[in-house]
User: Fold these one by one.
Assistant:
Number 1:
Amino acid sequence: MTSKETPLELFKRALVQTTRALSAQDEVDVTFGGDRAVVTDKSVRLPNPIKELSQEVATLARAHGDAAALRLAHHDEFLHRKNQPQNGDGQQVFAALEDARIFALGTNALKGLGDNLSALLEKECIDKGYARMEDRQDVPVADIAALVARERMTGRPIPEAAKKLVAEWRTEIEGKAGKSLDALADAAALEDQDLFAKLARQIINDLDLGDDDGEDGDEADNDENEEDQDEPDQNDDDDQDDENDDGNESEDDNVPEHGEQNDGQMDVGEMLDDLDSNLDDSANDDMESMFYGPDDDTGLNDTYRSFTTQFDETAPAEELCDPEELTRLRRLLDQQLESLHSVVSRLANKLQRKLLAQQNRAWSFDLDEGVLDAA
């Protein structure tokens, strides 16, 4: 510790070195920022610890670093995407079980690391409001399945904040997938991500959350993809000219962006078509004409009037939901939308191309000046 190094800086430096050591990877880049840990390739971003380092704050900070390091050391993203189910509910359970496997490996190997992860899990359950939930349907089944699996794999108890909800789900989950959950405790299954993925798929099928074709769904999808690739060669000759006229835009739509995956949640083509129609100028004009007069851009059209305001009631937002409940609902919504991230990314790229296509550019190549209107 240098004379100018504060205790917080010393703690962060030690946390960086510990994260790199636990990851068992060369040249891991560890930075601080945001409010959650993010792991990409060999880069880790950890939440910034607050200046006043209490025991609780230090434990949670170490837990974030431990979790990120374990993911680098024991998780293969290619295998994960290869083995995951195609439906959204199945993917959530599969991802939750994989996280439980990763953390179980560290918990079983190092007691102190396990204590850190247990503290982090307890805080997450409190933040999600599990202790206040009355209806078990309010919590995703993926979270409950992961907690039950963690109990099997590590022997550690369910977090106090989640005990009530787990008790309500336990009979149903163990009745359907008890044998499969017991198989997760095998050390060989924990070390082998591919083998563990098969057990996780079995649990998902036992819970009736798997794909329609069961474990053979991936093979069936591959066969269908091969057939789909053969059919265009025979039947799409007439459409070749139209595809060429579309330029590179259609090719860009079919190429996933960085970080995307084919979730199979919905027809992305239909969503892109809907976006095209929404961005169409004529559609916007028709929508505006419903509320605004043809020559009035500031007031509502005379054809629209409220019938009465006698029964209107105004409720401030802060009275509808307290901050803790709002945070819990926000986290719950984020969990439900995880499977739609690739669709949102693709729609965002489509919108960006639409906006860029409206830029006005002009250039005289025999001069050293030009015009670029990026408005």
Number 2:
Amino acid sequence: MTFIKKALCGLVVALGIVAQVNATPITFSFWGTATGSLGGQSFTDAAFSVTSLADTNNVHHNYIPGVDYVYANHSSISIAGFGLADFTIAITDLVNRNIGAFLFSDPTQNRLIMSVANSDALTYDLTSSIGPDSGPSNVNTTVFFGTSLGLLNLTNISENNYQAVLGETTDVPEPGILMLILIGLGMMTFFVRRRTL
């Protein structure tokens, strides 16, 4: 058997055993009525909604005993009269089982953006659907957070709700295996070209 045939057989076997991992998307949502400013423009008792997309495979459990968090892949906020603004900063979604709260925060500044206190948070771990839940909210009134429409500052949330919705699980090839396959294809191309020269 020639080298090329052996290499092709090896590649077929490698493709057959590519490891699979499950990517399970989850969407965290906060919505209610808020007061504050966006891009220097004030708003009072305006309807808002926050959407944060993450992957349950990236949840860090018991970062601090009783606290789980996950970095969001993408987060945005929609405020009545302003439209949709993407957060331009890193975002983490957290649950603190010690105090029973769902949290949305800026890990770079280590500051809370908003939270919802609800007893459902006492047993939640960011890996399943939950809610909708409502409850008292906290905001960080003196801190500004970057968005595509300018800096966001929340001074009050008079009504806040929370929900997490688990998406459909999809199989994703393990990145390391794909790299090995690409290297193998590159080597085969090199040897085939070398033989023809």
